[in-house]
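Handoff note, outgoing to incoming analyst
You'll be picking up this chain. Sequence as last confirmed:
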Amino acid sequence: DTQATPGLAALDNIRLTSRDGGIVPLTTIAKVEQRFAPLSINHLDQFPVTTISFNVPDNYSLGDAVDAILSAEQALEFPSDIRTQFQGSSLAFQSALGSTVWLVVAAVVAMYIVLGVLYESFIHPITILSTLPTAGVGALLALWLAGSELDVIAIIGIILLIGIVKKNAIMMIDFALAAEREQGMPPREAIYQACLLRFRPILMTTLAALLGALPLMLSTGVGAELRRPLGIGMVGGLMLSQVLTLFTTPVIYLLFDRLSLYMKSRFPRREEEA
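Most recent structure output, in case you need it:
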């Protein structure tokens, strides 16, 4: 009678029938203990899981929180049959950072192929793509000075810079190549004239993009902290690239032009066969 005995002691009165028909008390085959347990057990991929939620405090980024959790996990030294996994925004953050490098590489390779087909050259696309490091350095420097983290939104801003900044070199290289092929100008004079004549369009397009990014950088209100890294990265990259590309692009253009002449004199037969 389990109703006459309160608590766990009532389980001692439970009898089970064995295979041979005998009566066996439950305590002979089971050990009953009283301890704390969850009210419900969640499952992920058919495995029982325990979900631990966290909030990111002020003045800290999601990346800082993820690094702290990973450090705590290593310090606890979980057994081999226990594994941890991020979910939600933390999982999306790690996935985005893991694929960012390959995304940038794919974008650069695609631009190189398109520019190579456009200019029918293997060298001049490299001259155009040489403007990208200055934009990346400017964006990272601006984020560092502003105290912002390199999050997913800031990475999107850097990817946007890839398309905006390279137009400076395209304007100069396109004019210089046309002057060389159509007017017979030497490379030094051609790139010099390109810098003089294309300075105003370069400055106008850069200022247009810069003024468009300023509201993102200076925005306030709801959601401003999400948009601000995008504007900071774009403004920093545009400012530094505008200052440096007007000097670095002609130098790299002349350097690769001399390299091309050297290769032609070094391997004349190979070029004739091609």
